[in-house]
Design brief:
This protein is α/β, with parallel strands linked by helices. It has six helices and 14 strands. It has helices at about 75, 80-85, 95-100, 170-175, 190-200, 220-230; strands at about 25, 30-35, 40-45, 65, 90-95, 105-110, 115-120, 120-125, 145-150, 155, 180-185, 205-210, 235, 245. Bound molecules: nickel (II) ion and manganese (II) ion.
Amino acid sequence: MLLFTKPRARFRYLCAPKLEVMELTNYGHSCVSVKMNGKNILFDPFVSGNPLAGELDIQKIPADYILVTHAHGDHIADLEVIAKRTGASIISNFEIVSYFEKRGIKGHPMNIGGCVNMPWGTVKSVLAIHSSEFPDGTYGGNPGGFVVWNDKFCFYHAGDTALTMDMQLIPRTCPPLNLAILPIGDNFTMGIEDAVEAAKMIECKTVVGCHYDTFGYIKIDHQYAKSAFSTAGIKLLMPGIGETITV
Ligand code: NI
Ligand code: MN
């Protein structure tokens, strides 16, 4: 039992993080940024190709780390430009990190189930049910999501995924979630009803919807989405593109 006498570093925050103010900026689709200990943690940069992102200028998006859920174009299109301008490192699966390393971008490779401690928090790579291939046809490894926490808050970015029973493992293996970013656009990912079930499985009462409205296939009824979540006792936030919210 000697192995277990020393708690593993990744569990140092397993007691509920005390929710201080969590600041999240929505850049549209699945691209959000969260401030953690003064660092800008950017997810799935896709802005210039987003018909809804209008005036947003990718030259002004700050990033210290870029977390990438999978290799589809609507999650990586602006990665290279932003990473080269900011010097941000990426965190993603091995295949995606290798792909961008060849293009001069440094990164930290992970795979599903693993955790890494960064100076600003802990990142856990979790399952997503989806696919992952670069726009040029390169294999993009397995798609994933991330649970990210420090001593202040804990959140989940689901990436593109179907509802899956594996989501039940998140509350059993990670600190309690203060917020979850879940796809609600249907067709390529969970739709509204399945995302409500996902929120119940992960035991999270505050959800930021993502991956909706960007293209014709994923246009949704906002009123219906809000009411479906509120009926289940869950708050659905749908911040505007470019909007920063504090939770
Ligand atoms: Ni995708
Ligand atoms: Mn997508």
